[in-house]
Specification:
The protein is of the alpha+beta class and 141 residues long. The protein has helices at 6-19, 21-30, 77-92, 113-140, and strands at residues 34-41, 59-64, 67-73, 100-106. The chain has a single domain, classed as Alpha-Beta Plaits, CATH 3.30.70.270. The protein has four helices and four strands. The model is unreliable at 137-141 (pLDDT under 50).
Amino acid sequence: MFRLEKKNRQKYFNEIVSNLDEYSYRNKRYNINYAIALGFCTKDVNLSDLVDVKRRTDKYIPLEDNLCCVVFDCIDSESSLKAAQNLKTEVEKSCLNEDFFMRVATSVEHESALKMTNSLFDNLELFLRNLNASSDLVVNG
């Protein structure tokens, strides 16, 4: 079972934030919004084979084979949810019968890349805790 250890969370966090510099700059300077989606599949699958970033200005950030981040450029809250839902639907086809996590944070809702990224990892940790609790119930039940 995948565990999000503190050192790994920091490593992933740093990787994402370092890739957001350009987006954060344009958000502050020109008020161009962006969104980031964090995706995780419990199945041992390489998400880079499944995630198809459609626009040149969007960015795929691999973190582990089954953990990734996608940056959606020039997007508002509603559009980011739609883009993430499309991406989730695409990936879930290959993660059949497995749990798949995807959450989105936008520059509209969060004042910094740091807060956006922290919010996503907090949600992932909650998902993993609930997943572990569910598997404990099955094993112990």
